[in-house]
Specification:
The structure is a homotetramer of 347-residue chains. By secondary structure, chain A is of the alpha/beta class. The first copy, chain A, contains 15 helices and 13 strands. The mean pLDDT of chain A is 97. The interface between B and D is medium-sized, with 17 and 17 residues.
């Protein structure tokens, strides 16, 4: 018998939610105009406008990197820069895609808990050299919500950072690859998390929460929307049969499906993290606010995990555990037990 | 009762083949590593190696423009050019994506029937200014097979053009958005149509032949493969849940499904074109070799079509009719009758 | 004794006009702010405003390719195209610089005598696909005046082409590497040749007419000027000691120096061309309107020239002869005699 | 009488050294092939090979930003990064030119005294994610020598950093805008400072030390040289009358001129800095190793300087004073006295 592997690598190792698979099937009927000019996409558009409590323009895509690249390109000037946290996904894990799509420079702005800090942003803007032609000119602030380390900006933080950015003419882009997890954790509405806090453009990911390569670029400023179809095409991001992404996204937000899944994933991580953190020598690298846990473990615990039936990523000395909504309780228990035992703690 | 619309706009207005929908379902089981490092992708890789009768490296993507962009980027030098027919898809309908992905210049090389001509290619290479630093240096020849006007390069033409290109150090990229239709029409093997004719890289589309946003970049020269994952990421082309594209592609080539569908589509177009071309004043703009028909019609016939229950694209003075494998016979008959009647020809 | 070589390769093989060398010396006094924020540059600015009979903004640079790149970048949109003649300098001899500076695609528009034709431009605009996101969107029309084949747009042609371009939202860029030769040949004013004909931006070259790497980007629309210092810096085009270019340009237009030199160069070419064209079998490839002669010669005449004391460029089967203002009369006579004798014509 | 302004803004506010002006005049004789294919450029090439004690390939240009951009472009891969100090000139003061020329990302690597540190470089390389396609792949290490804050890498530091870089396949680019000042300060040879320490490519500036917009790209690895003419053209960096830059550079290194000037400038700065630093409350922001002084002054001293006959730049709270070889002794004394008096120190 093959030993089961409990998979903590990422939430995108999961399959597709049955409800979304059904939506795919339902959309497979008759012909439809390609490239997003179809009724499924229009229905999705309406659904998003309901969700966000205002008219929004939405573009279906299949990768988050593509959505981020197009979003930033829609804002870019030819000699510009995007301010972001040094650990931002766009700065570290997209192999230069934002630079390719925009021609811009990414400039790191520090801050605690892997978030752009208010003071740090103010200082960066003060020394950015606006109007000095030897300096790149900032045009956008990127906020990854949740961050790549699973931390969250509060609504107040988002508002303050957006105001600072807007005051200097920058637009605000939110990278919401785990948007549902953020909404679930903060207990706010989608509108509150975004445009009501000053967000101009949102990359909203559904893939990590049960969709089949379904991402959306949500535009809160209509004036920005006109250029996006061109930028998508130029970036190879226009889907021939866009209806199959749109139909998923429409269904995703048709009821509480998206929230329930994200809440479950967050809950799984919170429970596991709490137990692990109670062990001696186990250190949380970042506060656990959504479904991601970053740990530093004593060597013997790490060694035990490596030889156990667990799949997870290591980042330098740390390990990352990501929980899905359907993370096996047995897997979580066994992982905890494995670390506990290695550390010589009695159960 | 709503009058049905017979849809001749494109083959990508179709839904997804039932067999491929089943493959999607079957792949929705358990967790899998993201970004193409999964068993479905490995199985697809093996399937392609069988099909092409040699080891190939295959990368699953969701758009043809993305696959083309990455393919050309894998060949690009920093001050280079891609030779292609002026009407090539990459030159006209990708909104500058090849230029973005490569940084290169696209240089048109003429030829009859919308194909790069042998003489024209020889002349372009002779006057390209190799070694002259004021001139961009050609690094690739793009051949769209079938062309955007539905014409086909013969195997002999492909061989000759590839030899000319290789002799000057260029690599050969085939844009095969309708690859199955080309193989079906030429009655050759996939191997014969590609690397046996000198093709180095192939963008192979399955979407227009029944897949759900499933395209593949097929690499026949292993040395080129190493850079492609980076170029894909940088272009926002790496799918989080790649298995759902790979599973389709594996199934697509598992039996004659792909060929049968393409043959049917080609046959539909051939039959319709033959009937239409027999009418007085109806002119074929290009020979009908796959599933696309380009017509110039007398004004009264065009007017009749426009007011009939037909959907199709107009390109300047011409119209384009594309047939799917499941094009409704009734729709084809009614379209023919509509033109015939408008031209005053008795049935 | 070494046989002298009569140099017909280009007008940029010449040295520097004594008047401009003196201006360089005169500017070598005291300190001055770098990067163009100096009194010499301001004086040059005033001189250009006089010359063009209106306020203009002028940026000193050292290469024409740089000036062209920056000019087009100032107009560029992210998914745009520049319309130009297929033989335009920017399309053939700048190794992709315009594409690098702009990210845009260059799209060829045909026409006789190496000039963009009115009908051809109208057709290109009609089929450009404005508003279609699969197509690059034209933002500029480039007019090379004189063309790389030494032909000239008439003022009427410039007006018509500019109107067509402006009507579709394109801006007009004139590449005037041999601006003085054009003004001299047309007998018009600098204003008449440019903004009065609808030109929005001018790359004005002085180097080919006696300056030491002195070029200017002249902006007729103030709204465009603000972005240019950034685009120059980003393109490595901002000169540390800009005053030494500005001082030359100020002197260049301080009196008739620029015109006298250009008139002399044009006259030399006209005389030589007339004599050569009178010989049997000698064919002018393009009308000789400035200081450039393009000839197709019988093989024996070509062979004779090659073995004579002449330096010139060959372009495929043609040869190019460019005359400077101080072209040696003896050299021109000997060149004519060489061809004449080879063709067996008595003197 | 106008009060004289003592100019401490930069060394590029200076004019042109008389010896170099003479070299310009001497080069203004007869015709010469354009674009660097001339005898002056060949002589310069030989002179540099002598200076560097080995064959080198040298390309004359007119801006340091251009030389840096081309140098890095010669090394670039399509999904690459350049490691440099966060304060590096290429990272801060070139308005994105390196990114434009290379398509690469600049990644900051910290270290004391504005220099890349050995430990920091080792850590950056260890966590760079070589072989991970989500991460940009480093291809070059940029070392600014002297740094923009006037500090110097020792030969030992250069060797160590180069070895670390080479061991991971990176090439080493030195930005030597003030190359002469560095050689003068370190008392080493040009060879010792560069290729003997592992430098692969050098941007060598002469403009800040008395030349008229004369910079050179010096290539120590012949295999890199072949692509550079194309990259220069594409970047608008090829000078039409290159001989006038080459003639200056040849003369610059023909005797000790370059060193004498740099030594004098360094000496001026050292003397002034020593006196200023002796005053209470005056803080040197960086060690003064070449001709640049960075100071933090008490407010009253700063106010006094601002209202005195002095020109200088302010960077946030600091001021920068740069000394030329011919900095007026009176100006330096008056500046010192001004600060001293403001601080209430008796002379």
């Amino acid at each position: 018998m093959i030993q089961p592997v409990y998979d903590f690598r990422s939430d995108n190792v999961a399959g597709v939610a049955p409800e979304l698979m059904e939506a795919l099937q339902a959309a497979n009927l008759g012909t439809a105009a390609p490239y997003g000019d179809d009724d499924y996409t229009r229905a999705m558009q309406r659904r998003f406008s309901e969700l966000f409590e205002r008219p929004v323009t939405v573009f279906p895509m299949s990768t988050g990197t593509g959505a981020n690249g197009v979003a930033l390109a829609a804002l870019a000037s030819a000699y510009g820069s995007v301010l972001c946290h040094p650990t931002a996904h766009i700065n570290v894990y997209e192999c230069g895609a934002p630079e390719l799509f925009t021609g811009a420079k990414l400039v790191g702005v520090g801050g605690g808990d892997f978030k752009v800090g208010e003071k740090e942003l103010a200082a960066a803007l003060a020394s950015a050299g606006f109007g000095n032609p030897t300096r790149v000119q900032p045009f956008a602030l990127n906020l990854t919500q949740p961050t790549d380390f699973g931390t969250l900006y509060s609504l107040q933080e988002l508002r303050t950072l957006s105001e600072l950015a807007h005051a200097r003419g920058l637009r605000v882009h939110m990278d919401g690859a785990r948007f549902a997890n953020a909404v679930a954790a903060l207990g706010c509405s989608a509108a509150e998390l975004t445009w009501r806090c000053g967000v101009d453009l949102l990359s909203l990911g559904a893939t990590k929460n049960g969709a089949l390569n379904a991402e959306a670029l949500v535009v809160f400023d209509e004036a920005l929307a006109a250029r996006i179809p061109y930028l998508m095409k130029r970036g190879g991001q226009v889907l021939s049969k866009a209806r199959f992404v749109s139909a998923q996204l429409e269904r995703y937000f048709a009821d509480e499906l998206w929230l329930r899944r994200a809440q479950a994933a967050n809950r799984n991580a919170a429970g596991l993290a709490e137990r692990l953190a109670s062990l001696p020598g186990v250190e949380l690298v970042a506060p656990v606010q959504v479904n991601m846990i970053f740990l530093r473990l004593p060597q013997r615990a790490l060694a035990a995990l490596r030889s156990g039936p667990f799949a997870f990523y290591e980042l330098g000395e740390d390990i990352r555990l990501v929980c899905r909504d359907d993370q096996e309780p047995e897997g979580m228990s066994r992982l905890y037990d494995c670390v506990r035992a290695a550390l010589g703690v009695r159960s």
